[in-house]
Amino acid sequence: MSEEWVASADWLAEHLDDVAVVDIRDAWEYDGIGHVPGAVSVPFDDFRAEGGPEGMMPARDHWADLLGDAGIERGDTIVAYDDTHGVFAARFLVTALYYGHDDLRLLDGDYSAWLRDHETTDDAPDVTPTDYEPGDAREDVFVDADDVLAATDDPDAVVVDTREPEEYAEGHIPGAVNLDWKEVVDDETRGLKPRADIEDLLAERGITPDERVVLYCNTARRISHTFVVLRWLGFPDVAFYEGSLTDWTERGHPLE
User: Known catalytic residue: 217?
Assistant: First the structure.
């Protein structure tokens, strides 16, 4: 299929029968406001790590049960959406990638974009549960603090802080550049800014496809959104630090 990693509402409308659509909003929004036809409901709180700190991945068995109950197969193309510029949906997609699901799309412009030109429904689809089997964790993409530290000394790598500028100014990993995830979103359309505009913005910060990009944040959904955008732009080597700055400093690493 085309439109890898980011799918327009028009593209989704043409492929509704060929993809698994996942609604990440709260259950009351799915039921009370309506949803994309055929979409299944997997609210954000359902796949956050149970009993663990924010940002941790859910347990493998829990993830398998969630996707199996939603009727999703390992070979499905998953298109996820929310109503907050895709930041929560991006976390769902990154979790799916972590557990070996490769065919993933973020709905560009979130549910509001779908509403503008396409029909919605209040009817939940008939779901046939599956025996979803997650793959092995993607250690090539999800890195630890030692990998981040190595990247700070690597001339062919750039460490990117996806928090707000005020947070970055209060302290960040030495050498990291700041890219607030909202900078790539158009407030009017709610979708991503044009590809060329985002590429120019990234280049201004020294973030280019010929470098290894290592992302970090204190909130998993914000870093997830930037991760999806970079993969959509064709960046071949994007790493995701699942730990927080608290984890970073507790390991004895400094901030700048």
Answer: yes
